[in-house]
Amino acid sequence: MSDLFGNSAGYAAAICYLAAIVGSVYALFAIWAAHAFLRPRRPTPPASYPPITILKPLHGAEPDLCANLATFCRQDYPAAVQVVFGVADPADPAAAAVRSLVAEFPDRDLELVISPRRHGANAKVSNLINMQSEARHELLIISDSDIAVSPDYLATVAASLGQPGIGLVTCLYRGAPSTGIWSRLTAAGIDYHFLPNVLVGLKVGLATPCFGSTIALTKATLAQLGGLQSVADQLADDYALGMAVRRAGLKVAIPPFIVGHMCAERSLHELLLHEIRWARTIRAMDSSGFAGLAVTHAVPLALLGVILGGLTPAAFILAVALACRFALQAELRRLFQLRNGIFWLGPIRDILSFVVFVASFLGRRVEWRGQRYGVKADHTLVYYSEAD
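The structure corresponding to this sequence follows.
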């Protein structure tokens, strides 16, 4: 019996060694993919820019909400820009944040829509449907509330959408931590795991992303897809819209720049809840591709090899894994000007990401905006209860 367990541990250690080596090579490939993503120039500016309506669904008093929303009010854009904000509850503190923005930017076209009407299980999409009737311009940009952008954001997105064959524009994002170790660890997870995984997926042609950071398309295209109502029950409404655009024979463009995603987690519990939801969302959309991400966790796999097989040869493999991961972190920080302040805690972030990856396989329920949902086989949501 001891021989059986000994052999099993040896086989498991060998698998961990091999996976850690593959993960180390993957980290080096991700560096190359990052360079390739930034290599193309931004699209040539069009002769004229179309007017734009930005739809901002809001819920709750998020940290730095006013500051993030203000970046959309300070755009250097040579045409009319309307920003429509939406909340479901008139007592929502986000409504007060919008009113302060209206006072701060009296020369901007800002509107607030308050409506509790539900159109499906996805509360954010219901909010967007309620807001859409106030949109006056043909070009729509939907963007999550926790996103911050540079002044040339609208001009770049509009130029990308104006290219031939493009039906939708979306944007990659980096982590923008608030305060505290947990928000910085969350930002590091975005910067050092999500970002390189997407870059590699795009480079090898396996990723078909669409992100809530930016969904830019015309009203005509949205109507062709069946409108926002078509994704009112979807867990990943952004991904579903991107796939619908591709099925319609149009392309989804991702310009070579990134926006900021505010991270405000205040505890390990909040970090795990949010990241497990993200992971289960990705798993629901592409289960085989998500499972393949196991090899990207080189450092935890090498540590498992140490536990199962001893220091030899695992110590060398662990050193290689750490070196490759630190090289990836350093290059991503340089290329994308990342400021999560967590560089030397990268191995701890790697272990956390591995824990999230494993936990994502241990259920299908998710907690989102204070409510619990189940996810059906068709990726639609089933409401369960209010979260504690």
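Residues 279 and 357 are 7 Å apart (CA to CA).
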